[in-house]
């Protein structure tokens, strides 16, 4: 496979896709080849078709540009196919991470989908009490994530995943079998957040280390698809277990409810994760030439690491961006904390909330590549802004009334918005993180995301008690109107603060191995043959804005 010829990309470069066959070309190389006539015909002709600066384009210019655009699309599709093939030549660790991502995501989504319902039905908690437990679970995940940021960087990928899977398996089994409310709440506040902090972030770090610039964007795209595939499986399986074991399952004189069986499947998936880790993950990384080299975990002083990261402007821009996404993230957490109880109360105990939940990942799997291909030339911040507006408006469909079609339109609109913005926010924290400091960067900057659970936990309990109680009059339309209004805060604030957080209007800096690395992403005002600025890797640039998502859509 390493000797197979590689298609030229639109810059005229050969080989970036295959491991070890040829080093990446630089921006200087590309510009030199452009001047010398070595640029691919599609790009060269496209540049020649641009009018001189100051002249208004004619119809002839637009026709020429259109034909070259079609050639460019075909070239991108060929290049995309070739880069997907490079994933097959990646180290086995990349595919182990994908397998673990599926198992981890199933464990998370199936558990989160039934958690508040489980606390109410198994322990008699009120809506508000169950909501606050759900919220505090998120807060403890934040604290655990910050602490584990240091541990991840020093332990490395393999041991972090192994410890996280072991703790997660034992914790989920205790949650499934114990009858003690005190023990359940204690585990939700301690062991479970610890296991997730040692598992979920390290997988994203693994994707970064097991790929290089030639295929990293596609590796992250597939990573995102695997997560949604797991969510797609989790929803219907929860419904199936609730329907088949509606009266529970009796084993050896002990009876287990359908919700406890869901927790058992979550524990089994985590146990398989542990077995997969033991199969063999090495501490390695892939350099920009595609060569596999050993990787030494960062053993620097954790306090010094933290001080250094907190001094970097790039980190604070990332943290602000993550904070502004909190509003739109609220909708996704209401799918866990609010939707199941709302549907069982308005449509009956057999309401298929798991199947409704599965609409989102099903659409995402198909929409993400289509939207990505259609919006290749649109800058990342604009995509995130548009997608946030679409997702933010989605809850208002349910304000029409308690109809299945309204809930389906809510999920479809939410999914379209997610497909527009979410892929663009997935790699940003990894791209600007200093080498060996990814865990600390990710845990500190993603802390605002876990405040979403606290907000939704308290908010969901109050909304259900006030507008959708188990008995008595209900006004669920008002409940969803309030949810929609709060989610709309995100796009509005991002629009108002666009000049602060949009990367093409500012510079970011990052520290790698003690060396400060700066990057200016200013955009030219006029795109002409004289002023065109060709990026080093346009594919990566189109998806660099965003932040890491800890199983939180």
From TrEMBL:
Keyword GTP-binding among UniProt keywords: no
Keywords noted in UniProt: Cell membrane, Membrane, Transmembrane, Transmembrane helix, Transport
Chief location: membrane
Cellular compartment(s): Cell membrane
InterPro entries: MFS, MFS_trans_sf, MFS_Transporters
Bias-annotated ranges (Acidic residues): 1-12
Molecular function in Gene Ontology: transmembrane transporter activity
Membrane topology: Multi-pass membrane protein
Pfam families per UniProt: MFS_1 (PF07690)
Composition bias type Gly residues, residue spans: 35-44
A GO cellular component entry from the record: plasma membrane
Transmembrane segments: 95-119, 131-152, 159-177, 183-206, 218-238, 258-281, 314-332, 352-373, 380-397, 403-421, 441-465, 477-497
Positions of region (Disordered): 1-64
Name the record gives this protein: Major facilitator superfamily (MFS) profile domain-containing protein
Organism: Compsopogon caeruleus
Lineage: Eukaryota, Rhodophyta, Compsopogonophyceae, Compsopogonales, Compsopogonaceae
